[in-house]
Amino acid sequence: MKKIKTIQLLPVIILLLGSCEPKDKFEWNVAWSAPKFYSAAPMPIEFFYQGRSVAGTSATIGADPGWGMSSGGYTGGDIYKPVPDSIYMKWGDEADGNYYEGGARLPREKMLELFRKGKIVNGNKEKYTQIIAGMAPGGNATIWMSGQTGNTEIIRLKIPNKGVWRGNDKAYMESQAKLRVSHEYINSEASKYQYLHGIPYSVWEKGEKTYKYDIGFSSEEDRDFYESVTAFSKDGSYIFLNENQFIIPYKDWVSNHINAGVKEGKLPVHTVVQWISEDDKQWYKGEIVFPVDFQNTFESFYKKNKNVHIVYVMDKLSPSENYTFGTIWLQSSTSKERIMKFRLAKLNNETRKYDVSKYTLPKGFVVPKWEGRIPLQKPTELEYWQEE
């Protein structure tokens, strides 16, 4: 019998199949984000390459992880995927009660270059491993690429407003109407924050400036205290500068002896301050709303000074009082400028509650006009201290 020669076709097939795929695939996943205190829910978000879905995410409930920070939900896609060239987005926005839906092109070449090159951090190369889709009120969307040490903004988008979220669902709308006038809802942390700061639509559309500065802490007390300052920017981002705000000895604060370095970050509009004694017996806490014109004040000081810090300086304690005071300063190694005084409430160790309000408002504060579609109820439990 005539012997038939076997031809190895497998490498040829693989080569032909490979030629139909994009040359560059990377290991990345997709995530979604919403500003802190301005919850949103993706329904869904989908990334495409040449008309084919390559990854997506969705969630059944809203969340507000912080602008640029990722939240969980269902995600899909291969491990190694082509870089997308477009996106489709749909989300329900809790702050204004609308839903936004639409597609947009993405700057694929820019993203491709970032995936290829990665980023250099402290002399080491880091890979981008995530594409984050941010959803904010007004249909304002931002796309970031993310790695181990922060995000790189890719593009800001405007997604069309399609009307009332689930407006044709009578049962849902009735339940939402009841929820929004409930005591728990109107006195929630998010409702209080929105009442004090409004909906800053333009900041998501235009983006927010960053500056080189850091946050410090000082006190007249000669005892050891643990302190923390959680700061939020206008766009609902957490501000991560020196993650453990450095302590400035009081004598160094007085003499402007500040040598600590600075980092790049957005400016705060709201901070949560905790001050706890080393023996854990004295707890103080406060939420501080910054003056509306703080950015202008900061920029004026910033132009004239180097090594700028926002410093929280605590007064000496009065043991008989259920609160204590402090002052926020702008400070450099050569000068300082007073911003505002604030009050921290002291925790009652017996009741485990604060006997006075934790909120401080700046002098001359005016509640911003509410621009959401659904009227915002004034919180009934929003007491505060305000400097006269």
Automatic annotation (TrEMBL):
Cross-referenced Pfam families: DUF2931
Domain of life from the UniProt record: Bacteria
Entry-linked InterPro entries: DUF2931
Protein name, UniProt field: DUF2931 family protein
